[in-house]
Design brief:
It comes from Aequorivita lipolytica. It catalyses: ITP + H2O = IMP + diphosphate + H(+); XTP + H2O = XMP + diphosphate + H(+); dITP + H2O = dIMP + diphosphate + H(+). It contains five helices and seven strands.
Amino acid sequence: MKLVFATHNKNKYIEVKTMLPKHIELLSLDDIGCNEEIEETADTIEGNAILKANYVRDNYKLDCFADDTGLEVKSLNNEPGIYSARYAGDSHNSEANIKKLLKNLEGKEDRSARFKTAIALTLNRSEIMFLGICEGEITKELRGESGFGYDPIFQPKGFDKTFAEMTLTQKSKIGHRGKAMRQLIDYLSK
């Protein structure tokens, strides 16, 4: 089976590829020659995932899945949410995003947060949605060298390490993307 993962993000591509069964050939947007940035104009994480998957299906006639992930911080009215990747501006700069988030949390007692991933699958003209959520909290300082995005400041509930202090395997077992991916893999295995 050949599937497109609608991403240009090499870190996400590698994380997802390691989870998929070997019988699924995974292609990225780069692999299919889709060099444009697919606009995320929906007002929900689920809506943005659907937009990206449908774009590939409609323009490249390939089965596809797309994800959208947001970090929702309770005391910031669930910011950054759908703006997680561009919280500090359109440059998608993780360091700037983290800096802005930590600044906005100064003086706030409640640091609870959750990562939410929505995966939209378009397969044989059908659309299926999978959701993964990981509850946790935002640390006061960056910890760890692994991962990407907000991983150095997100500590999952029940753990004493941030995502950036975990191996990719550990993160995939408990993380939002891993939870949504396992649902997708179970569906594709039927």
